[in-house]
Description:
The structure is a homodimer of 342-residue chains.
Chain A: H1 12-19, H2 23-31, H3 38-51, H4 57-64, E1 69-74, H5 82-95, E2 99-104, E3 126-130, H6 136-144, E4 149-152, E5 164-167, H7 169-182, E6 189-193, H8 199-214, E7 224-226, H9 231-244, E8 250-253, H10 256-268, E9 278-280, E10 297-299, H11 302-319, E11 325-328, E12 331-333
Parallel strand pairs in A: 1-2, 1-3, 3-4, 4-5, 5-11, 6-7, 6-8, 8-9
Antiparallel strand pairs in A: 10-12
The first copy, chain A, binds a DNA duplex (16 and 16 nucleotides) through helix 2 and helix 4.
Amino acid sequence: MSKISENSRATIDDVAERAGVSIATVSRVINKTGQVAEATTIRVWDAIASLDYSPHAAARGLASRRTNTIGLILQDISGEFFSPMLRGIEAGTREYGFDLLIHCTHVAGNDEPRLSHPLGEHNSDGIIIFNESLSPNEIRRLYRLQFPMVLLHRSPPDGLGIPYVGFENKSGARKLIDYLIDERGYRRIAFLSGPSGSEDSHWREMGYRESLAAHNIEFNPDLLAMGGFNEAQGQAAISQLLKRGEPFDAVFAADDDSAIGALSALKEAGLRVPEDIALVGFDDIRPSHYLTPPLTTVRAPIETAGREAVRQLISLIQTGKAEREILLPTELIIRRSCGASE
Amino acid sequence: MSKISENSRATIDDVAERAGVSIATVSRVINKTGQVAEATTIRVWDAIASLDYSPHAAARGLASRRTNTIGLILQDISGEFFSPMLRGIEAGTREYGFDLLIHCTHVAGNDEPRLSHPLGEHNSDGIIIFNESLSPNEIRRLYRLQFPMVLLHRSPPDGLGIPYVGFENKSGARKLIDYLIDERGYRRIAFLSGPSGSEDSHWREMGYRESLAAHNIEFNPDLLAMGGFNEAQGQAAISQLLKRGEPFDAVFAADDDSAIGALSALKEAGLRVPEDIALVGFDDIRPSHYLTPPLTTVRAPIETAGREAVRQLISLIQTGKAEREILLPTELIIRRSCGASE
DNA sequence: TTGAAAGCGCTAACAG
DNA sequence: CTGTTAGCGCTTTCAA
Lengths: 342, 342
């Protein structure tokens, strides 16, 4: 009877025995490290196939000091933004033969003494940090350890040399507001921001202000509403703004999720979009095109950004090098919500 | 100078040394296995904290034969369904202190001989299999190995005793169509299906047929349209159906994503919803409530299902037991798309 | 081109 | 309550 019992996995020893070679050779074949005779290689692969062997990840990791896994840290899983982002990250990860570990940080958990680092040197070869999901302190700790990291949609704290991937937010917003003013004649444009810490929101606001300034329109702080990159807060913020009484003829929501909330608020107040108030967003998430009216927005390559973050991270892991900053271009998408004919 | 160099991690030995105990004791403290004196425990936690120690996952896994990781296999990441599902799974995973590994199977990859099992005994303690993302053969292989698995939104192949979690699809659809017929007076109701292999779609269709039968309405195969649980195919299918010329007064889309596509097709054909044709869906994904008109649908507890799958899986891993079948109840959500006043 | 053997950092008996 | 020690299944020198 074979040494491989019914419910226990084949090991590299089984493969070696079956192929009539040493485990070192099996290892060489699998990892394509070192020269192995053609005939031997074939015998080894045959043995692997017939035993349905897959190497034990932990054993490999322990011996090689590589986990072949990358981690993704985010606050939580929500909104329409998340799905394309993860799609890009997963695709990139798989393309390079890495596994993907996911961790959300949004709930603190209990208080007893514990091992605090969900993702790090002990279980992955590198991590992607989305937004503000990891504290600057923790980032610094990993940086000190020279642990490979890539930041997604945020820049490094202090001036740490950590690569990051994001969008051309400012120029995208600038194009959008320029269009609103130049082509559509709006001048009293409200800005619905994202959450306060968000860099995406910050730069979009900068693009908005820059456009106003370029058109000699004074920035009006009363036309600022605080949202949170989600529908509910967007709706609440615009309801508030409406109550304030400061007149405006257009709303620029810092992202499409909040634009959807804004649209509800506007409709609820009996206002027509775009006849009474124009509405534009940022991101071009999937629902934007089937809203009523369809939403004018700036298309951000969310999926590409995710994939690019993986590329940079893998490069960092494998070569120690990566680009410091990658800002992906955006595209103006004109639809009816800003008064365009189509 | 300390043995812990700048950029290399602290190990259990460092902790033991620092706390003045053996590594066995450190291990006991961390894993809460075996009795350790209060004072010792404190010293150990202190050492852990001051060294910023986290146990090497691979070493733990190798020694304990547990990875503390569960895997999720899916075809691809898309649609509005995915986000709440993953949220539930991630939350469940974290609640039990497990890590989450994600893998998509939708692209084949290259042809050279390779290690074929992305997720399995070698890198996780159990897996959640979504839909048809894993072949029956592979499922059988893992079953033979007695590897813990839970199926999400599909039942086991053959009659393997693998636990699965899903929705009460049939009764949900039944309620919905009953309502359409009894309260709204529709009788020529088209069914827009999901992809052919989908059990969710199958049982929703069964509920639909059951309702028709209960109302003495003959099932009309010409009122069947083949979609794919996504917007594009839903739209195409309804356009087709319209061209066929068979009259109908309502459409039941097997999921909300295709309902959104159906809505586009209907509008494009100049039909008003619900005045000319009523439209209903299934799932109650986020956009459903802000469609124009808002979509009548059946709310499926997507996030809860994900969380429940994790619960069952962990129970299977830890106790060897889990419930064979969990079908979560659904709820009728009435909105304007079926002609309701509000 | 191949094999032998020394760990990788932990857990889990076993002994005390 | 605590320490000693034998592996877990691999990768990786080092020799041959």
